[in-house]
Write the structure tokens for this entry.
Amino acid sequence: GTTPSGWGAAVLAPPGSLGAAGRVTAVGKPIGCELWWVGADGSVTGVWSQPGDAWAAYSLAGPGSAAPSGGIAAVSKGADLMEVWWIAPDGSVQAAYHDGSWGLYTLAGPGSASTTGGIAAIAK
């Protein structure tokens, strides 16, 4: 396809990087945006950019951290405050929050979610 006028296109990850369900979540920030996906290896990868800068990638959670067919969701809480949730292979709901740096925690224990189910979030 073609890129709409005024829009740019970028390859954020090589082919085969996404999990079987191909789940991606993103947030808009005051300047730029950030997005995350569950990798085929169960990792959670993030990328971010702001106008005029190239995309920068980072690992939010390593291989085996997420169910490759499970859901992922994120919200922006304003400024550079963000939160991301995903379903782990044991059915727990894992989370990360950003408030200057990333912190990880478990939201719900093993068996709490379907490893093939979706997950949704909304900011208050």
Strands lie at 24-28, 33-38, 44-49, 56-61, 72-76, 81-87, 93-99, 102-108. The first strand starts at residue 24 and ends at 28.
